[in-house]
Amino acid sequence: MMTEPPRGFPTEEFAGRLARARVLMAAAGLDGLLLTTEPEFRYFSGFLTQFWQSPTRPWFLLLPADEGAPVAIIPSIGEDAMRRGWIEDIRCWSSPNPADEGLSLLADAIRDRMGPVARIGLPSGPETHLRLPLDDLDRLKRALPGVSWTGDADIIRQLRMVKSEAEIAKTAHICDLVSDVFERLPTLIRPGMSEREIFRRFKIACLRAGADDVPYLVGGSGIGGVGDIISPPGERRVGAGDVLMLDTGAVFDGYYCDFDRNYSFGSPDDAVRNAYRIAHDATAAGFDAARPGAQARDVFHAMNSLISKALGDEDGAGGGVGRMGHGLGMQLTEWPSNAAWDETEIAPGMILTLEPGLTIAPGRVMVHEENIVIRADGPRYLTRRAPPEIPVVAA
Amino acid sequence: MMTEPPRGFPTEEFAGRLARARVLMAAAGLDGLLLTTEPEFRYFSGFLTQFWQSPTRPWFLLLPADEGAPVAIIPSIGEDAMRRGWIEDIRCWSSPNPADEGLSLLADAIRDRMGPVARIGLPSGPETHLRLPLDDLDRLKRALPGVSWTGDADIIRQLRMVKSEAEIAKTAHICDLVSDVFERLPTLIRPGMSEREIFRRFKIACLRAGADDVPYLVGGSGIGGVGDIISPPGERRVGAGDVLMLDTGAVFDGYYCDFDRNYSFGSPDDAVRNAYRIAHDATAAGFDAARPGAQARDVFHAMNSLISKALGDEDGAGGGVGRMGHGLGMQLTEWPSNAAWDETEIAPGMILTLEPGLTIAPGRVMVHEENIVIRADGPRYLTRRAPPEIPVVAA
């Protein structure tokens, strides 16, 4: 097991992120970025709290393109915690206050830092959203008639896709912890347990091993394969002939792993054994393709071709997932997508999941998932590779 | 301990929710509602999955105001799970596909059900957001030039604020489970443990007791009171003279509790003892005020007046939280707010938190929180009431 990496980041890391954002803002002709979502707010401020689960209060981070300091406009409930971080210009209002939910403060900050006429980027592209009521966006626009609002010119995506060594260490750590739990899982469960009980034991084992939380744990069980890969566990009792699959996003210091493991209760039949091997081989093909200079779609095609050839069937690949892996970091899924349409260039520092899947029989899928980091000379596994044959739980 | 209530809801419950929404849509002159966020999608469809943590794919639920059936427009990865629910008109696309992320399907569904000219409501008010990239909202508007987009006329808020008996049973169950864990906590921890270790033990105990998950667990410790109430646990070791506070949102079948408990390590000093009693008394005052026909602000004023009088100081109340409790259900925090500005009428079926807080000393706060349900003849506690004196952990 690895040593636990340090929590948080040195101030230089945030200063570097901001400096890179400024170069890109200048190139895009933006006077600033306005961020409203948790990962973006945290990426530049370091502010980590589960309080974002409450939808009541907006949080704003304003990044001026010039040398002016970033401004956090936040509910006063967050002030003490925020002052422990590196952001110095913190402006608070007593929230909730639907009559003026931080909008006057925000408008003032924009006028202060950028003047009455400015071009401000809001993340607006794929996999983003605005964490602000639509009515409040309208109010903000009316309060700042000289401001033109536009997308973020892909700046956030470009920055967040390439991870620092400190970020990689956090994901590597949670991948290592959870790999260990997956390896020990057969000793923690037995036939006749419900899916719910198995998932509970897995989650407790992750917490004991040092995961901060296990926000994502889905999967299921079924004779000869699982039916879908996004459902919560049910009361079904797992026994002989079943395939059990758990797919988890556990976190350490705000960084996710996202991978799965499959188990056979009793000896697997040939269809399961074969599907598992194909998915395992496809993962290896994806790994080999995930080199700097390749594109995300190349990683997809490497996995998809192997599966299609093995099945002699174009339609069997994928299992309805729409892609075969994705970026990973502060969120369970991030850009890019290992998909036929994604031309994102693979670069050192990216963390990706490899997630090949195939249909074993109607309504029965087999999905594998591993996490990798891209280095200058090629990929490295962050997860401990799944065994080449499906692990068996005595049944 | 209670028996575990059944999971899910009967179809009639969803049909009733839809029928009530239709009455309100007709009154507001809306041809339909378009929902994009997890609680809203789940409220009308019953679809429960942690997959929403992935920001990649939008999910849409279209509720026509007329007798037409609701339409779910969803990524194909969700199709199998969705077909196990009560929604029959399910339309899927292979997602992610940023070139057309479900928008053509959605636009077709709107044209099918409402014709080319329609008035569609999007939740746009306080505590809402649109879970869709801004660029895609623009595309949707361009694809449907005859559609006028407006707010949801407060329909979602009105419906969700009043809970059904089945919903109340789920929240009551998780409140009961977690009350039990809080009562046992002093036997699970000891002086010298770090906050992180204490929080981990608490979380594991909740999972063992039958919580599905503990998505929210914040708090901290400090000599004579805690510093803020939204931070994650740290490495600080808790010992003599400390107040320890844990505030948790655990879930059962998609419904939250949200309450906290305070502990003193060793005998509390007078300031802590006194602050605890004031917060306890304020909770009782809030409880007494939370009767059908009162307003949310009355509940606030009952708590706030008691605290202000006890402190002889208007400014000591609240501790920067901005309100003294809120609605609770599918989300950790929901409408209304127990705040001076909130005129929402308290009605039977509402679930509220009572959350009075006060400043003990600069940077030291004491916050209590209980969960209640409103009945025709008055409130009932769903949490097992905190003891009237701060519980002591031997130190």
From TrEMBL, chains A, B:
It comes from Marivibrio halodurans. The keyword Protease applies. It comes from the Bacteria. SUPFAM superfamilies: Creatinase/aminopeptidase, Creatinase/prolidase N-terminal domain. This is Aminopeptidase P family protein. Residues 17-162 form the Creatinase N-terminal domain. Keywords: Aminopeptidase, Hydrolase, Protease. InterPro entries: Creatin/AminoP/Spt16_N, Creatinase/aminopeptidase-like, Creatinase_N, Pept_M24, Pept_M24_MAP, Peptidase_M24B. GO terms for molecular function: aminopeptidase activity; metalloexopeptidase activity. Residues 173-373 form the Peptidase M24 domain.
